[in-house]
Fold this sequence. Notes:
Blueprint: E1 6-19, H1 58-70, E2 74-75, E3 78-79, E4 82-85, E5 95-98, E6 105-114, E7 117-130, E8 134-136, E9 144-146, E10 153-159, H2 166-183, E11 195-207, E12 210-213, E13 217-219, H3 225-245, E14 257-262, E15 267-273, E16 283-284, E17 291-292, H4 295-302, H5 309-320, H6 324-331, H7 334-345, H8 350-367, H9 379-390, H10 396-408, H11 413-419, H12 428-441, H13 443-451, H14 456-470, H15 477-492
Parallel strand pairs: 13-14
Antiparallel strand pairs: 1-10, 1-11, 2-6, 3-17, 4-5, 4-16, 6-7, 7-10, 8-9, 11-12, 11-13, 14-15
Helix pairs in contact: 1-4, 2-3, 5-6, 7-9, 9-10, 12-14, 12-15, 13-14, 14-15
Amino acid sequence: MTDQAITTRTIIGLEIHVQLRTATKMFCGCPLKFDAPPNTCVCPVCLGHPGALPVINRQALAYSMLTGLALSCDIARHTKWDRKSYYYPDMPKNYQISQYDLPLCEHGHFEISVEGDTRRIRIKRAHLEEDAGKNLHDVPGCTLVDLNRAGTPLLEIVTEPDLTSAEEAFVFCTELQRLVTYLGVSEGSMQKGHMRFEPNVNVAIDVGGTEYRTPIVEIKNLNSFKSVRGAIAFESQRQTAAWQEDHDYVLGKVPNENRGWNDDRGVTEFQRPKEAAHDYRYFPDPDLVPVDVTDEMLAGVTARLPELPIARRARFMSEFGLSPKDTEIIVGHRGTADLFENAVKCGAPVDILGKQFVNVWLKLANDRNVPVTDLSVDAERMARLASMVADGSVSATAANRIAEAMLDRRDPPDLLADELGLVQVQDTGAMEAWVSEAFAANEQAVRDALTNPKKAKASAGFLRGKVMRISGGKADPKLVGQLIEKRLSELRE
């Protein structure tokens, strides 16, 4: 068998847990605080005390429906709650409230682009459930439990096994994070554990037309995109090697299993056999009434559905002529994209505005660790600054200084440019004098521009920079370039 040609195909399905951006937990009024002291955000409901009754978080339900619509899912008109039984210290009532046979959202799809090819990944279901607490192993010889996270609303999104590579899974997860943050349903912070990924991986091995499939491995609780890519790539290779060593390593003969990812070693490690649905002994939760989604509820959520990131990126490139890279940056944050569009509506020239967003406004925002929308500069003033560069009132360099001043003052950029002495000089006589001064002070650069073809372009650019410095940034760079070329032509003659 091993003498025949072998081809392999990786089969990947994803389970993604998304923490929803609600103020309180899924079934009680306890606040959600990431950095609260252990066991301070708890109550009888999330602690599982006898007789404590859960109440559904309406906002979590709306967020889940909104995400389901964005994933092209069918929204169930009737859904219920189920108890998923398991005994772990981080779930004190010994069951998790989840959804089993009647999920809120199902039968959807999500399109991604991988190396220029569009891939449609089917969404099997997206259901609401509560999170468990957190086991801490900081003290030698014992395990501590923090139940602040117990009861946090989670949306579990389950794909069909349509992904075929670690790279596809990586792209899917990054695009999904963009989607949930764009919708505003989750912060999507990897550092805070707002998204956790669990790939189900096995390999189809074809030998001479006969297919063998390895057992399914679920890799638990990956909390970074890098881990998703690394764990799937390793697991695919590990399973192929295991089959080549023992041809009985196939689905049905060897149990499915759960494995963890050791990021330091770059390997997956066995944890326990993989549970099946019957292991959890699901049954309807007697303390929670089913949810009937009315036409009014669905219409209200549908009205909140924005233009989605992938579609918006395509429109920005076609409508505004932005490069794929700049579009990716601007559309990556919904508020930034909205601000950009509003500035265009205020009359900003798109080409200059795009450069300023990427090179000026986003840099200023990143320096302050805030989004552009928190810089307190409205679309109208951004548009005016871009227009000033377009009409030659100020240079691009001067615009950078004006932009910084706009962060602290509400004045129009025209006034700030005048106060800072940055209004661009259009006096040809003054600029000719600055060019003469730059030529006199930089004779070697002039000689290179005249006689050294390899250095001619760089030398001319050097001279233009000197003129701009002499002028204090007031000279029109385009006109300066023309005057330099004119002067060089005269010297050649």
